[in-house]
Amino acid sequence: MVLEIKNVSKNFGGIHALRNVSFSIKQGEIYGLIGPNGAGKTTMFNLITNIFEPSSGEIVFNDENITGLKSHKITEKGICRTYQNIRLFSQMSALKNVMVGGHSRSSSGVFSSVFRTKAQRKEEQELEKNAEELLKLVGLFENKDLLAENLAYGQQRRLEIARALASKPKLLLLDEPAAGMNEKETDSLYDLIKIIQSKGITVLIIEHDMPLVMKLCDRIAVLNFGEKLAEGTPYEIQNNEAVIEAYLGKE
Ligand code: ATP
Q1: Do residues 174 and 82 lie in contact, with contact meaning Cβ atoms separated by under 8 Å?
Q2: In the chain, how many domains are there?
Q3: 3-state secondary structure of 111
Q4: Residue nearest to atom 24 of ligand 1 (CA)
Q5: What is the 3-state secondary structure (H, E, C) of 11-44?
Q6: Would the CB of 89 count as within 6 Å of ligand 1?
Q7: Ligand 1 neighbourhood includes 40 CB (under 6 angstroms)
Q8: ipTM of this complex > 0.90?
Q9: Which of these, 34, 77, 110, 111, is most buried using a 10 Å CB contact count?
Q10: Is residue 105 domain-shared with residue 133, that is, in the same domain?
Q11: Could you tell me if residue 205 is inside a domain?
């Protein structure tokens, strides 16, 4: 197992955002986290990346208990995420945005120092080369010098994924990557996530686009009012009465 969520709960004052949720993700899987608004999905991402600590329970990554570990340490261990609302450096080029993502894993102050050592220049060249490869992967190489704010919405979403990949994650958390995308953009997002999987990266995805989720995911957990309502293959989830009742609705 790459990630094990063990009896995790999170309370915000009187709100039980998550209650005793457990699930495990296998190496190389695309695992979906779905459920109605306010079900606790983003809170789960915030606990995995330790934006907040769980009120109780444990988060285990590659057999190591990472509960409460500092967020940057979690990134170093190999977990990276995108956000529900795009968080790019809008005044930086697409290329620089991805380089910054890679920089979060590197040691020296490449971007902060004016007087760079030879080693730092070499490191920056490597970051640039890696960023260019990632921009090719997400189909944005031609746009590498454009400011992030001048990219189309779907392109910005793909740029966020490239930036997350720059830190060479073993586990990629995607928070509603298809939100606001048109059909064509969603199709190319599907292809991209499949390519990411083929590179051996495990993916945990929160998404409301059900056709995409059902086509993409190997397994899915459904959250409802902070509790795990069901877990299974897309077929099992689509045919689960409780899930249909609470979230999917009848055709
Ligand atoms: P959506 O699909 O709308 O993004 P979600 O499933 O991601 O919803 P969360 O954002 O995790 O749901 O929210 C779960 C519950 O926890 C909600 O009731 C929300 O108001 C509450 N919550 C989340 N973060 C906080 C916080 N920082 N402070 C207080 N309450 C919070």
Answers
A1: yes
A2: 2
A3: coil
A4: 43
A5: EECCEEEEEEEEEEECCCCEEEEECCCCCCHHHH
A6: no
A7: yes
A8: yes
A9: 34
A10: yes
A11: no
